[in-house]
Amino acid sequence: QVQLVESGGGLVQAGGSLRLSCTASGRPASNYNMGWFRQAPGKEREFVGHINWGDSSTDYTDSVKGRFTISRDNAKNTMYLQMSSLKAEDTAVYYCAAQPLWKAGYNVAANYDSWGQGTQVTVSS
Question: What is the mean pLDDT of the chain?
Answer without folding.
Answer: 92
